[in-house]
Design brief:
FAD/NAD(P)-binding domain; 3 domains; five-stranded parallel sheet; binds flavin-adenine dinucleotide
């Protein structure tokens, strides 16, 4: 059996490794268009400061995959076409054109950077204006930062990657301006929690320009002039963090069915609309645990898990991909920001009759020093009392407490059942009535 995997990061190398475990005799070839495989993209913002090493993000090298797992990793091999009738992929490598037949194919092409329509951006890409998507992007930004430690950085886009990078630029001593085109940052966050992020930015000297569009970039001497809909900014370095889209063009051209956001549509066994082709990771869709709808959730655990399952299924097993909740967390200076399940807008779009409560409570017992305030926003369904979603922001506790809510959502619990849960307590970790239990109690009343 010859298995070909396209793409060699989280989903692709998980798929290839699991296929090797499932079938010691299979011929497994990974075709990766870049020069790196198996790296921790999530760590990129944290490796920007001079003291951190970008290369530490490399998990297992291509050589080790070849030697230890007998996986034929081919770098600099870009697949340009999938011929489903001939069961063949073809493309271009540094040695010229290639074509390879397959018995099973797993598409793990991930996501691609979305290039916003900004005049002058094309000429400044990787020469002053950078995306932060791949390990190579990280190396290029780091080289630029090392050559010219920036005094002023403009970050375009206030999503979690833009904000994580902002923190790291600021800690390098740069003055950072974040420019966000939407009227508010992170629209899925409730307004009061969003305000805490804005306050945190201000407390660390970061300027946030929301409802502001970057119109053009131009290099003038050593400086990049950033023309926005509000005013002119000057930067030594511009980070373009305006989001990603599923890299599903190959699949689309091959006539495979697409799902949410144009990601490759999969069945529960990660098969595409062609039974010989599976897909996993950011290029593909998933099923939402609450709505049952196709969703696009480009996150790492999901990519690794789907890759593993696809690797098994390509070798004849039939393992089902669990549904997703979009559980996510990130850090912004002294705050943890976490979410799971649906936002108000997503619940409304799914036709759910939802109500929310929001509470603020201490992250430690009142008499125990330190800590701060945790904001908990909890959403549930009127009538059934079922939990639908949660967002938390606080100086500590949010990152871990969100997992309790994710478990409750997976189990289909009601607000009342969450309130009845026997959760851990000790003064350094919260009041005996955890902020989560207080929110669940209030939500249960609001829903009845
Ligand atoms: C800066 C940053 C921070 C992040 N932080 C977090 C976090 O904190 N938590 C979290 O859950 N997620 C995070 N993520 C998201 C997470 O990294 C992704 O969900 C994960 O990397 C997806 O893995 P993937 O294998 O599906 O796709 P990708 O990582 O996009 O890899 C796809 C690979 O396919 C290759 N490829 C594409 N087309 C072809 C082709 N035609 N031929 C050959 N090869 C091809 C690409 O070169 C690429 O190497 C972060 C992402 C970034 C960029």
């Amino acid at each position: 059996m010859r298995l070909i995997v396209i793409g060699g990061v989280a989903a692709g190398m998980s798929a290839a490794s699991q296929a090797r475990r499932a079938d010691p005799n299979a011929e497994i070839i990974v075709l990766e268009k870049g020069g790196d495989v198996s790296y921790g993209a999530c760590g990129l913002p944290y490796k920007l400061p001079p003291a951190a090493r970008m290369e530490d993000l490399q998990v297992i090298s291509a050589e080790r995959f070849r030697e230890e797992r007998k996986i034929d990793v081919r770098l600099w091999h870009e697949v340009e076409r999938i011929d489903r009738d001939a069961r063949e992929v073809s493309g271009r490598s540094r040695d010229g054109a290639f074509a390879l037949g397959y018995d099973k194919l797993i598409i793990c092409t991930g996501a691609r950077v979305w290039t916003p329509p900004i005049t002058g951006l094309e000429t400044l890409w990787w020469r002053g204006a950078y995306p932060l998507k791949t390990l190579e992007d990280g190396r290029l930004i780091k080289a630029a930062l090392t050559a010219n430690p920036p005094r002023h950085v403009v970050v375009i886009g206030a999503g979690y990657i833009g904000l994580e990078a902002t923190e790291n630029f600021a800690e390098m001593g740069a003055a950072v301006t974040v420019v966000e085109a939407l009227p508010e940052i992170l629209p899925w966050l409730p307004a009061a929690q969003r305000a805490r992020l804005m306050d945190e930015a201000a407390a660390h000297g970061v300027e946030m320009l929301v409802g502001t569009r970057v119109e053009s970039l131009a290099r003038v001497g050593e400086t990049i002039q950033v023309t926005t809909s509000q005013r002119l900014l000057e930067a030594d370095l511009v980070l373009v963090a305006t989001g990603v889209r599923p890299e599903s063009g190959l699949a689309e051209a091959a006539g495979l069915r697409l799902g949410a956001a144009g990601a490759i549509a999969l069945d529960a066994s990660l098969r595409t609309s062609d039974p010989h082709i599976l897909a996993a990771g950011d290029c593909a869709d998933a099923i939402h645990a609450i709505t049952g709808a196709s969703v696009w959730v480009p996150l790492a655990l999901r990519a690794n898990r789907a890759g593993k399952l696809a690797g098994d299924n390509a070798c004849g097993r039939d393992r089902r991909a669990p549904p997703v909740l979009g559980t996510a967390v990130f850090k912004f200076f002294g705050l943890e920001i976490a979410r799971t399940g649906l936002s108000s807008d997503e619940a409304a779009a799914a036709g759910l009759d939802a109500a929310a409560v929001e509470i603020v409570a201490g992250t430690r017992a009142g008499y125990y020093p330190g800590g701060g305030k945790l904001s908990v926003w909890l959403l549930g369904e009127r009538g059934t009392g079922r939990l639908l979603g949660c967002c938390m922001v606080g100086p500590e506790a949010a990152a871990h407490k969100i997992d309790t809510v994710a478990a409750a959502l997976h189990a289909g619990l009601t607000a009342e059942q969450l309130h009845a849960m026997d959760l851990a307590y000790a003064p350094p970790f919260g009041p005996s009535w955890s902020p989560l239990l207080i929110a669940a109690s209030q939500l249960s009343k609001a829903l009845s």
